[in-house]
Amino acid sequence: MSVKYDERYATHPADAKHYDTARLRDEYLVEKLMEEGTINLSYSQYDRFLVGGVVPTKEALVLEAIDPLKADYFLERRELGVVNVGGKGSVSVDGVVYELAYKEALYVGKGNKEIIFSSDDAKAPAHFYLNSAPAHEVFPNVKVGRKDAIVVELGEAVNSNRRTLNKLIVSDTIKTNQLQMGMTELHPGSVWNTMPAHTHSRRMEAYFYIEVPKGQAVCHFMGDPKETRHIWMGNEEAVFSPTWSIHSAAGTSNYTFIWGMAGENLNYGDMDVCQPDEMR
Known about the structure:
By secondary structure, the protein is mainly beta. Helix content is about 5%, strand content about 45%. The protein is built from 2 helices and 24 strands. The strands form 5 sheets. Strands 1-3-4-11-6-9-12 form a 7-stranded mixed beta sheet, with no helix packed on it. It has a 7-stranded antiparallel beta sheet with strand order 2-21-18-23-15-14-13. Strands 5-10-7-8 form a 4-stranded antiparallel beta sheet, with no helix packed on it. A hairpin with a 5-residue loop joins strand 3 and strand 4. The mean pLDDT is about 95.
């Protein structure tokens, strides 16, 4: 089994202002997450947050601790969120099997030792997107199907930002230590997400873009609200957003993205809004 990982270090906002395109991408963009027969992980020093991609084909893939965790097993001191963005698959947690269809989620609590990912069909494998954060309490494992999500309609077509927000792993639906995850689907004709943009110094965030049509792209905006930067992204790519950075995007078509957060505040509405005409 192949497991690949990298580490991302925290950066000062004053330093980030001097990064060129290549450096911005190296520091914040996570490419090639979904690779058949492989577990790909990226470990960030922002709130010790971790993003990953798992694509099992003929053989199941086991999630084991990587060296930066200095743990006997992956969830020894962590919690885990999983969203399937591919074919049907399952996640076995200490022998209990949870079947996940497209866009279904699973929360796995601290202390579970054996996490095994499988696909129902190797020719149409599951694509499991992972978020993980440190945990101090043990909470139950919970599957969150599409019908279990809290659904909120946001934006307007006239502003090109009409979108459906699905709260999956959030404090309003299940108990977590600090991990929060959800999925936002843009309607046809809309391209802007998270607008007005915002920051929240109480927690960091990561975005994972999916359903980006072939030949199209998403321009992710980040940085200080008064001196923004951008990163062009493709399908099934993730980006880390530091606490001091905005996180918003516009696409050349509509798309979907999964957001994940960790930090000291579980209140989804805790944000410092930056109006469009205030940003630079």
